[in-house]
Amino acid sequence: MVEDFGLHRRRRVLFGTAVDRYERGRPGYPAKVYALLESVCGLGPDVEVLEIGPGPGQVTGPLLDRGARVTAVELSEPMARRLRERYRPAPLAVLLGAFEAVVLPERSFDVVVAAASFHWVPPELGMAKVAAVLRPGGWAALWWSIYTDSEREDPLAEPLRVALRRHAPHLLAAASAGAHPGQAGRHHGLEVDDRLAAFALVGAFEPAQHHLIRWSGRHTAEEVRLLFGTFSPFLALEPGVLDAVLAELGAYVQAQPGGVVERPYLTAVYLARRLGG
Questions:
Q1: According to the model, what pLDDT value does residue 3 have?
Q2: Rounded to whole angstroms, how far apart are CA atoms 207 and 271?
Q3: Residue ranges per domain, the chain?
Q4: How far apart are CA 68 and CA 3, in angstroms?
Q5: What is the structure's pLDDT at 205?
Q6: Can you tell me the distance from the alpha carbon of 70 to that of 45, in angstroms, rounded to the nearest whole number?
Q7: 72: which residues sit within 8 A by CB, 6+ positions away?
Q8: Residues 33, 90, 26, 170: what is their CA dihedral angle, to the nearest 10 degrees?
Q9: CA distance linking residue 266 with residue 191, whole number of Å
Q10: Predicted pLDDT of residue 183
Q11: d(CA 11, CA 233)
Q12: CATH number of the domain at 5-149+185-218+264-273, please?
């Protein structure tokens, strides 16, 4: 967890400034994530799902495609507006506000999902509230994608280090920025013992499961610029600094064969069943 949650709270509102970039630049999640939701958590027609931090709907769409009824809690008004527009008239209710503050009925959901968002929820409140809104026997599913993999070669690792040393060297030492090659710190989603312990501490879940999915993403120069322009440490940069970093990354990709790079990614998934079913 980030050492300064005050900074964390300020940064979590930044995504509302980059709705188009987020919608176009963030890749979706591997098919295996949804296979786990179906085979383990029972995702399917008429299942009541609560989604925490849906953004513009990378996960909302696949949930709706599987017949679920979705209640989405979104902090950003621009993101919430895009979500409503994108999926009207699907069985989707969008609630505006922070998950820890929005009033939700207890024992009302079969599945609670949070894709790359649960680390924005205050840790002292988040898991207990998830347990409270789940029906007995319901499932919590939290996952994060890590846009690099230390065990495989990432062609953007060194170009990113060079660009950050030149334009934003403080990010190289940012402990919260371990999602990206060349930066310090371990990504929240890869702190397996801590993530599993968070379920156990609430005392309301069966032992949690951890699944690590390895996959790859192929990106053009424009897609790389869009992707890196959605990460909160980058969004917090001055616009001119951000533009300079993204321009260098884009130029590197453009110079590669076919103007494309293939990068190694991970998705860490945590699933836990609510006691009492």
A1: 44
A2: 9
A3: 5-149+185-218+264-273
A4: 36
A5: 97
A6: 11
A7: 50, 51, 54, 60, 80, 83, 92, 93, 94, 95
A8: -100
A9: 13
A10: 52
A11: 8
A12: 3.40.50.150
CA gap 277, 260 in Å, rounded: 48
Q: How far is CA 219 from the centre of its chain?
A: 19
Radius of gyration of the chain (CA): 18
Exposure string (b/e) for 183-217, b if CB count within 10 Å is 16 or more?
Answer: beeebbbbbeeebbebbeebebbbebbeeebebeb
Burial class (CB in 10 A: 0-12, 13-18, 19+), 227: buried
* 27 confidence band (pLDDT: 50, 70, 90): confident
Q: Report pLDDT for 36.
A: 98
pLDDT digits (tens, 9 = 90+) for 175-198: 444 445 555 457 888 899 999 999
Query: What's the whole-model pTM score?
Result: 0.88
User: How many whole angstroms from its chain centre is CA 99?
Assistant: 15
Alpha-carbon distances, residue 97 vs 61, 72, 90, 101, 144 (angstroms): 20, 10, 21, 7, 21
Distance from the first to the final alpha carbon of the chain: 31
